[in-house]
Design a protein that fits this description.
Blueprint (H helix, E strand, L loop, with lengths): L4 E11 L3 H12 L4 E5 L9 H4 L3 E3 L4 H5 L6 H12 L7 H15 L1 H8 L28 E3 L3 H18 L3 E5 L1 E9 L2 E10 L14 E14 L8 H7 L12 E2 L8 H9 L3 E2 L4 E9 L9 E6 L4 E4 L15 H11 L4 E6 H7 E3 L6 H4 L3 H7 L6 H9 L3 E4 L2 H11 L7 H13 L9 H9 L3 H6 L15 E13 L2 E2 L6 E3 L5 E7 L21 H19 L1
Parallel strand pairs: 1-2, 1-8, 2-5, 8-20, 9-17
Antiparallel strand pairs: 3-4, 6-7, 7-8, 10-18, 11-12, 11-17, 12-15, 13-14, 14-17, 16-17, 19-20
Flavin-adenine dinucleotide binds next to helix 1, strand 2, helix 2, strand 6 and helix 9.
Amino acid sequence: MARRVRIGEADAIVIGAGLAGLVATAELAAKGKHVILLEQEPEQSLGGQAFWSLGGLFLVDSPEQRRMRIRDSVELAWQDWEGTAGFDREEDHWPRKWAEAYVNFAAGEKRSWLHEQGVRFFPVVGWAERGGYGATGPGNSVPRFHVTWGTGPGIIQPFVNLVRDAAARGLVALRFRHRVNELIVTNGAVTGARGDVLEPSDVDRGVKSTANIVGDFEVSADAVIVTSGGIGANHELVRKNWPARLGQPPRRMLSGVPDHVDGRMIGISESAGASVINRDRMWHYVEGITNWNSIWTNHGIRILPGPSSLWLDATGKRLPVPLYPGFDTLGTLAHIMKTGHEHTWFILTQKIIEKEFALSGSEQNPDLTGRSVRGVLGRAGGGAPAPVRAFMERGADFIVERELGNLVRRMKALTPDAPLDIAQVEREVTARDREMDNPFTKDLQIAALRGARSYLGDKLIRVAKPHKLLDPDAGPLIAVRLHVLTRKTLGGLETDLSSRVLRDDGEPFPGLYAAGEVAGFGGGGMHGYRALEGTFLGGCIFSGRAAGRAAAETI
Ligand SMILES: Cc1cc2nc3c(=O)[nH]c(=O)nc-3n(C[C@H](O)[C@H](O)[C@H](O)COP(=O)(O)OP(=O)(O)OC[C@H]3O[C@@H](n4cnc5c(N)ncnc54)[C@H](O)[C@@H]3O)c2cc1C
C-alpha cells in the first residue's frame, strides 16, 4: 500500500488512550478545546490497562471504611505513604509533592468526584499491603482498597462516555492505529508528534496486534500530553532498569500487562529533551500464576492472597517474618531473588482457597465486573469462585492432593531443577500446625491471622478461620507454584504539580505534559520505592485531570 503523510492540527494532542489519556482528553474537551487522541492499538482496546484492572482504589476515611468500623485519617494515610515510599533522593522533590497532593485527594475530593461521574464501590473494603514492620514502616495500617462496582470497565466507562460524546460534538478526533515515534520540537517547545499509521487490526481486546506500517502522520498542537503507560511488557527494559537492591533480575517473568505496555514513549520523550527519573523503581508481584487461558503474550495472573497460606521458597524453607501473603510485595521479591531461585510455593487448604484467593483482573471477577449482586453474594456461600476453580483444574502451577507426602512429591516433580527438600516442607507444615493448639502463639503469621479477623471485612470474606493445614476436614491440600509477574512502573517523566514535563535543568519543557504511569503517576514517581495498592488508577485520574486542566489553561 502507498505511504501517505497525514497532517492534522488541534489545540492539544494526547498520546495514549488509557485511563490517564481519557481523563486528560475529557478535561480538555470540557473546556471546549479540540483534541487529537492518538492510540497505537485498535479501537477495541480503548481504555488500555485499566479495562483489565480490578478497579481497586485507595481512599482515605471513606463512608465505606466508616461503615466497616475502620478509623482512618489523612494523617494516618500520610504516615503510611511516607513509610512505604521511603523518599530519599534529591529527585524526589516533585514525587513527594505529588504524593502529598494525592493523599489529600484520596482523603478529600476523590470519592465524591468519582461518584459524580457515576462510579460506585463494593461495600467491603480490602486490606492490601499490610506491612508488618511497625507503625512508621511500610504498609497500610488499615484497609483502604475500594473495589469499583464493575471493576476496570466500571472505572473507565464514565471517561469513555465523555470522550465519545466530545467526539460526536467534533471536539475530539480519535485516531487509532497511530503510533507515535517522535515528538516535534520547534524553538525549544514541543509542537507536535510524528509516527506510523499501522494496518487495521481486528484482534480481540488486549491481544497483541500487528505492527505493519501502512502510512505515516504528523500532527501539531499547542500542547502535547503523553499518557502512554509504563514498561511492564518490555522485559528487556525491566531487566535493564532492575535495581541491585532487588537482587539479580529474574530470568523468567510472567507479564501482568498487555503487550502495548512497551515503554517506548519514555525513550522518545527523553530524546526530545524530557527528564526521566527513578527508572529503577518498579512494582512487580511475587504471586504470579501462568494463565491457562492467555490473552496477551506470556500472560500471568496475580493472586490477591489472603494471609493464611504457608509461603515456602523453592527449597522448602518458610519465608522470614513478616513476609506473609499480602504483607510486603517488594520485601518478598528482594528476599526471593536472594534465594537463588525465582519461584516460591504457597501451601494451603481447600478452606483457605475458598475464602482467601482472589485473582486480580476484571475478567477473573465476572460477578463484580458484571455488577451481579447475586454472584457476589455467592462468594460467601462456600466453594472457590469459578475462575479459581478453573485454575485448580487447568492451571500449570496448581497441585491438589489429600495427603501431604503426595503433595510434596508432586511439587518436587514439577520443579526438577530446584532442590526442594521434601522433609523440610513436611517439617514446616507440621511445626506450623503445632502452633495452633493454643489461643496464643509465638508464630507471628498465626497471630496476624487472629488479629485480622477482628476486622469485619476480613472475617466476612477474606481470612479463613484459623485451622491446621493437616486437618482432613479443611482439605484437600493445595500447593501453588508462584512466579514473578511484571506490572507497574513507579518512575518516569518528571512533572510538576501541573503535570508539565520538566527538562534536565528542572525547567518546564514548553508544550509538553505527562500523566499516568508514564509519569510515575505524577512527578516521576509519587510512590517512591513501594506502593500502598489501589493508588495507580487514582494516580491516572488525578494526574490526567491535572494535565488536561493545565494544558487547557495555556492554550
Ligand atoms: C490486570 C491488571 C490489574 C490492575 N489492577 C489495578 C487495581 O486494582 N488498582 C490500581 O490502582 N491499578 C491497577 N492496575 C494498574 C492500572 O490499571 C494501570 O497502572 C493504569 O491503568 C495505567 O494507565 P495509563 O493510562 O497510564 O496507561 P495504559 O493503560 O498503559 O495506556 C497507555 C496507552 O498508550 C498507548 N501507547 C503507548 N505508546 C504509544 C505510542 N508510541 N503511540 C500511540 N499510543 C501509544 C498504549 O497502546 C495504551 O493504550 C492493574 C493493571 C492490570 C494490567
